[in-house]
Amino acid sequence: MESEYSYKERKVISIGAVSELTGLSERQIRYYEERKLIFPSRSNRGNRKYSFSDVERLIDIANKREEGVRTDEIRMEYKKEKTRENRETRKKMIQGQLNARFMTQKNGKRFS
């Protein structure tokens, strides 16, 4: 699954291709960047580069906009989602540390 994650997160898609994939104009895509809803990277020449996750997010943004949701509301929703994800990640890390510290062998002895 690690390779799937890196594949999905790699910023390699041009704004023109993203426009074709999403049906959004390049102007709309740049606007969503200005509104801090999407965060493309830049090539050495300064061209925007997007990931497949960015494409999915842009489609989600477009759907919400069609439903009448404002960009500031979308940004707040994404911020809350990111906070929840960070909490879950932190919780899993702590649980993993606790498990590693207090794990017992099959014979009942603790690792030290």
Spans where pLDDT lies below 50 across 5 or more residues: none
The structure class reads mainly alpha
Mean pLDDT: 88
Helix content: 55-70%
Count helical runs. Answer: 5
Q: Total number of β-strand segments?
A: 3
C-alpha Rg (nearest Å): 20 Å
Shape, please?
globular
Element-by-element helix/strand order: HEHHEEHH
Strand content: 5-15%
The gist of it:
The protein has helices at residues 2-9, 15-22, 26-34, 52-66, 71-102; strands spanning 13-14, 41-42, 48-50. It is mainly alpha-helical and 112 residues long.
Could you characterize what this model shows?
- The protein starts with a helix and ends in a 10-residue tail after the last helix.
- By secondary structure, it is mainly alpha-helical.
- The protein has a 3-stranded antiparallel beta sheet with strand order 1-3-2.
Blueprint (SSEs and pairs):
Elements: H1 2-9, E1 13-14, H2 15-22, H3 26-34, E2 41-42, E3 48-50, H4 52-66, H5 71-102
Antiparallel strand pairs: 1-3, 2-3
